[in-house]
TrEMBL record:
It is a multi-pass membrane protein. Signal peptide: none annotated. This is Solute carrier family 13 member 5. One of its GO terms (cellular component) is plasma membrane. GO terms for molecular function: succinate transmembrane transporter activity. The keyword DNA damage does not apply. The chain crosses the membrane at residues 12-35, 47-74, 118-138, 144-165, 230-253, 273-297, 344-365, 385-406, 467-484, 496-517, 524-545, 551-569.
């Protein structure tokens, strides 16, 4: 023990210390209010459990999903909420939307459809640096709308690594003045570095290609190019997840919390927030962020900051040494990998059809301005979870191969049914079950806060913010949340903050979505640190990236994306969601307050909100 200082020992046991100390340090909250202020004992008990969960979520002393189970045990024990009501929150409609969407994503990954889409896009774009970067970003962005950001990044990074190696080898050969006809002409060597996403890329000899390589002096232009290419994957995966409700977990958290908030006041206007209406708002926002991110990364990593008349060495890396050979090698690598995947299979074709049908059903159920197919049924009887589960069920029924009875004589299969597109073993192995529990824990926490009256107390406490300009407040909240999510889980951040932000909006007389929407999007703006998101961690492990590189690029990305969200919120977001008109329950509350509390005063509603006469 003498070898270690007290500080080192404390740091080694920090998780245990936080785990034990947190409930003890926060225990005065329920003790005081149960003894001295019994009127608020339920609110205090709920706040106590919420505070413990918040600390555990932020510090991750136990798994996030394990913390999410706290309400099942402690809310009934502390007489905050009933066990039956708490447990029902863990499989709400939003959870089933996530469940169905993720099963489709698992099927896509099983049949490598995402890889075919990515390679197809790369073969369509040019092979110069800027177009290669866009070619990497577009499929990553699109795929992240439907499958997890982590899976998309893990699939794309080995492809980036292989393309970069072709550029590096060609440049090294020309600069050092050697010629290797075998390497140049052997197509097997061209794609030898494209590996599966679950392993580190290696060259033909099996040497690890991670990092710059020991004993070699790295070309600074190649290093800058590598940094830009790796970061573009992480950024486009994060940005793509913003576009759909199923694209990233904070979006689903927001949907569930908004439902709980509006149901609390018996207001049905929350049904306007559907998969389709969200996509109308978020898809243009995401697309603008993607284009600006592409330009920003070019500015940082593909241009020279010297005299503007001097041609940039990094602006178009493939034009150095031997442009034609570089482009040939890159194209050969892509073509070889494409050929290796073979022809489009029946399984891939059916998956494309199912994905298109699912997207169409989501978008057309309740488009917003016109009635969708959801109006054919009784109100509230169908939701976005309905088509998600329908398509998931079809995946367990549709064949992955042609029927044996229609096969030709060359088919050596035995008579029998074809394997389905999806099987339950694959779902069990690849489905992120912990996220379902984490979502449910957030909903259970929000419902308990509503039932105990804690959310009402929070709303009253926020009334002092009524004089703040809502536009400024939305920007401040977005910046604070974006900073917080760099060091905390974005799902935990969304779960904790969105209910509070909703009560804040109601307290100051602003449409709840006006503050909830930027809060939700900002929880995904974790661009600065490797630990902020799994995509960041993946590219940091693969590329020649330093923390300072990610911080400098990430600061710009945070500012850019927050600016785009502010623009979207106050233009098409306000028009689409009618954020300048208060929900019915807030209009009624405003009328009551002006007639009973301030009979001789008028209330100025922010954002030109209107009240009925």
């Amino acid at each position: 023990m003498g070898k270690y200082s007290i500080g080192a020992i404390i740091w080694a046991y920090r998780s245990t210390i936080i785990m034990i100390a947190t409930p003890l340090l926060l225990s005065p909250i329920p003790i005081y209010f149960n003894v001295a202020e019994p009127l608020y004992w339920r609110e205090a008990n709920c706040a106590y459990i919420l505070a413990i969960m918040a600390v555990y979520w932020v510090t991750e002393v136990i798994p996030l999903a394990a913390t999410a189970l706290f309400p099942i045990v402690f809310m009934p024990i502390f007489s905050v909420n009933t066990s039956a009501r708490i447990c029902s929150q863990y499989l709400k409609d939003t959870n089933m939307l996530f469940f169905g969407g993720l099963m489709v994503a698992v099927a896509i990954e099983k049949w490598n459809l995402h890889r075919r889409i990515a390679l197809g896009v790369l073969m369509l774009v040019g092979t110069t640096s800027r177009w290669l970067m866009l070619g990497f970003m577009l499929p990553t962005w699109f795929l992240s709308m439907w499958i997890s950001n982590t899976a998309t990044t893990a699939m794309m990074v080995p492809i980036v690594q292989a393309v970069l190696l072709q550029l590096k080898e060609t440049t090294t050969k020309n600069i050092e003045g050697y010629d290797n006809p075998a390497l140049e002409n052997d197509p097997e060597n061209v794609d030898s570095t494209i590996t599966e996403a679950n392993g580190k890329p290696t060259d033909a000899s099996g040497d690890d290609l991670e990092g710059n390589g020991a004993g070699q002096e790295e070309d600074p232009v190649y290093t800058r190019l590598s940094k830009g290419m790796y970061l573009c994957i992480a950024y486009s995966a994060t940005i793509g997840g913003l576009s759909t409700l199923a694209g990233t977990i904070p979006n689903l958290v927001m949907k569930g919390q908004v439902d709980i908030l509006f149901e609390k006041y018996n207001d049905d206007t929350h049904t306007k927030l559907t998969f389709g209406t969200w996509m109308v708002f978020a898809l243009p926002t995401s697309a603008i962020c993607l284009v600006i991110a592409w330009l920003w990364l070019q500015l940082l990593f593909l241009t020279n900051f010297g005299c503007c008349k001097t041609k940039s060495r990094a602006q178009d890396y493939t034009q150095r040494a031997d442009e034609k050979e570089k482009q040939t090698r890159v194209k050969s690598a892509m073509r070889k990998e494409w050929k290796k995947m073979g022809r489009l299979t029946l399984a891939e074709l059916l998956l494309v059809i199912m994905l298109v049908i699912l997207a169409a059903l989501w978008l057309s159920r309740s488009p917003g301005q016109v009635d969708g197919w959801g109006s054919l049924f009784k109100a509230k009887y169908v939701s976005d979870a309905t088509p998600a589960i329908l398509i998931s069920l079809l995946l367990f029924m549709l064949p992955s191969e042609g029927l044996w009875c229609f096969s030709n004589n060359k088919d050596e299969r035995k008579p029998g049914p074809s394997p389905a597109l999806l099987d339950w073993k694959t779902v069990e192995k690849n489905f992120p079950w912990g996220v379902v529990i984490l979502l449910g824990g957030g909903f259970a926490l929000a419902d308990s806060a509503k039932e105990s009256g804690l959310s009402d107390l929070v709303g009253k406490a926020f009334e002092s913010f009524r004089g703040i300009n809502p536009v400024v407040l939305a920007i401040i909240i977005g910046a604070v949340v974006a900073g917080a999510t760099e060091v905390t889980s974005n799902t935990a951040t969304a779960t904790l903050l969105i209910p509070i932000i909703g009560e804040l909006a109601i307290a100051i007389g602003v449409h709840p979505l006006y503050l909830i929407l930027p809060t939700t999007l900002a929880t995904s703006f974790a661009f600065m640190l490797p630990v902020a998101t799994p995509p960041n961690a993946i590219v940091f492990a693969y590329g020649a990236l330093r923390v300072v590189d990610m911080v400098l690029a990430g600061i710009g990305m945070n500012i850019i994306c927050l600016g785009v969200v502010a623009l979207a919120l106050n233009t098409w977001g306000t028009a689409w969601f009618q954020l300048d008109v208060l929900p019915a329950f807030m209009q009624n509350a405003t009328i009551i307050s002006t007639t009973t509390i301030l009979p001789n005063s008028t209330v100025a509603l922010p954002l030109n909100c209107t009240c009925p006469p």
